[in-house]
Amino acid sequence: MATHKLLLLPGDGIGPEVMGEVKRLIDWLNSAGIAKFETDTGLVGGSAYDAHKVSISEGDMAKAMEADAIIFGAVGGPKWDAVPYEVRPEAGLLRLRKDLALFANLRPAVCYPALADASSLKREAVEGLDIVIVRELTGGVYFGEPKTITDLGNGQKRAIDTQVYDTYEIERIGRVAFELARKRKNKVTSMEKRNVMKSGVLWNEVMTAVHKREYPDVTLEHQLADSGGMMLVKAPKQFDVIVTDNLFGDMLSDIAAMLTGSLGMLPSASLGEVDVKSKKRKALYEPVHGSAPDIAGKGLANPIAMISSFGMALRYSFDMGALADKVDQAIAAVLASGLRTADIKSEGTTAASTTQMGEAILKEL
Amino acid sequence: MATHKLLLLPGDGIGPEVMGEVKRLIDWLNSAGIAKFETDTGLVGGSAYDAHKVSISEGDMAKAMEADAIIFGAVGGPKWDAVPYEVRPEAGLLRLRKDLALFANLRPAVCYPALADASSLKREAVEGLDIVIVRELTGGVYFGEPKTITDLGNGQKRAIDTQVYDTYEIERIGRVAFELARKRKNKVTSMEKRNVMKSGVLWNEVMTAVHKREYPDVTLEHQLADSGGMMLVKAPKQFDVIVTDNLFGDMLSDIAAMLTGSLGMLPSASLGEVDVKSKKRKALYEPVHGSAPDIAGKGLANPIAMISSFGMALRYSFDMGALADKVDQAIAAVLASGLRTADIKSEGTTAASTTQMGEAILKEL
Ligand SMILES: CC(C)[C@H](C(=O)O)[C@@H](O)C(=O)O
Ligand SMILES: CC(C)[C@H](C(=O)O)[C@@H](O)C(=O)O
């Protein structure tokens, strides 16, 4: 059995708690002889700042480079609101994405039937929702230069951020979306603001070309990101795969996640390019939810998004699709049994702590 | 009685139809001696392109500069998808905003009780919703330079857009938001992405300073634009005034509009700075909805957003608040009577065409 190297980066807030439940699962997989994971742990975000005055240490970056997959919790919190910009908690996550070239962020937005009523949307609008946002993750306004604040004198400052996209960056994220669509409902919706942004014009042009040249069998639609956002709120089930840039993807995937009523349940995968020689790809898996500092340390956090992110790692990094399916089924079974963490509690269900939820999923497995 | 100069720019798609109903209202106000409007009409967007191969002619720009207020319909449509970027329909609108320095875009998102069920959100989430998005309209990534597509050779192109904000731009839009909040529930929520964008850092810093210095009596909250978008979907009624930049404002105001179930009902105002001498400000009023080319020319369009935008003109440009109130009341009364255009039709209501709806509102007045 091959040994897989995992780097666990729990981060801040509820990160360590939900990571604990993934650790429990990994330990069991190892001891039951189902898989062989070697785990190491590092610091990222505020916890790295507290320890080393950086958002991630060079040592942990080196470990990240070596790992077969990174399992990431969450970063940030008001405690670090005043730290210098370069070492703010988010910088650690952004550096991991950039240095590991994790350009493809897959964010499924699935509405668990048992939770459809937790959505602010009407049941009929979200029941059965199953879409994936494919977000470009290493380009755009997140990383473009110049990115500066300049003092102009007279009490005036000027802030600049730069959105940059090259053809190849749009092509490769497009391919990820089209490949994914082929395994799903075969439809891709590309979103940009071509009526205002030159990057939107290029995005539209390149998506259209990749589609025509390599994926004519997939349906491709284009929508302006603002009306796309509207449509997501109005009738989300019309979509299958949505492909969009880093900033629009940030906004749209959060909104899609919120629609499902299952924010504490949604995983994500950030993937690099497949290496031609080793056939491996760098990858980081993290829940869509944040570090929720207000409920940290209280055993209230929902570990499902984190466990489900580990499930994505099994599927995308370790070719253990069958085991990943079992993890998904265990989650569904536990939900069906009526067990709920505080975020998804409703009448007639049984309250569970983070640990109780983790243990129940493990037992089901 | 003072004479007010209006420039009507119906634009494309359903623009001319809904503008027709405003024209009907203006004619009546004139003939009844309630007000004195002098109207002129111009071309913008695709219709300007078809006539002059530009998105707005210099002649119409000159009229716009002279007008006391511009009443704007909508622009764009698939017909002009292939026209050169510089003369695409939207360019006319963007030029009006920029050249007239209409930096403050006010977008109320109000849920009409009679229409609460038209929302994809649950009634309890949106009933009674009454928020305003104050969107910065002449800065940010819409207008920053460089804004280019460069051929890099080897089949590669590079697209660049630039987000730029200066202190004074953030200060003045902040003041508009704080002033507005004072007349409402006294709460402003500022949204940016300070964890990723330098313009977000400056935005946050300047809003905080303006608040502390000039509006300490107003409650100011800050939210990251992605989680702000989430909150807007989850529990929109927590907000009063949201102030944000041009691109986030584009996304967030469309989403807020869609929440209400009343997209065809929502007006907007785009305002310039008040001139110290004349005490006047340039202004453009337009519905939040687009040109809806699919239903154009069929008498299906809902004229309420357009009429309501004219109502905002009465209020903000002509100090006719009482008359504006009457327009709002007439709209509410007609809705209460059960009259509905196709977009808001539901069981037990009476179908109305664009014209019938406009006439009914006028009759009510
Ligand atoms: C934490 C932050 C930097 C990050 C982002 O903006 O990408 C987060 O919002 C996300 O979506 O993963
Ligand atoms: C038509 C387009 C240029 C415009 C914008 O992006 O600002 C529209 O979406 C709006 O919100 O008024």
Automatic annotation (TrEMBL), chains A, B:
Where does the record place it? Cytoplasm
Which Enzyme Commission numbers does its entry carry?
1.1.1.85
Q: Where is this site: Important for catalysis?
A: 142, 193
SUPFAM superfamilies for this protein: Isocitrate/Isopropylmalate dehydrogenase-like
Q: Which residues bind Mg(2+)?
A: 226, 250, 254
Q: Does the keyword Nuclease apply?
A: no
User: Where's the Isopropylmalate dehydrogenase-like domain?
Assistant: 5-361
Q: Give the reaction(s) catalysed.
A: (2R,3S)-3-isopropylmalate + NAD(+) = 4-methyl-2-oxopentanoate + CO2 + NADH
Pathway terms, separated by semicolons: Amino-acid biosynthesis; L-leucine biosynthesis; L-leucine from 3-methyl-2-oxobutanoate: step 3/4
Entry binding sites for NAD(+): 77-90, 290-302
The entry lists its GO molecular-function terms as: 3-isopropylmalate dehydrogenase activity; magnesium ion binding; NAD binding
> Quaternary form?
Homodimer.
Q: Which NCBIfam families match?
A: leuB
Record's protein name: 3-isopropylmalate dehydrogenase
- Tell me the organism: Bradyrhizobium zhengyangense
Show the taxonomic lineage.
Bacteria, Pseudomonadati, Pseudomonadota, Alphaproteobacteria, Hyphomicrobiales
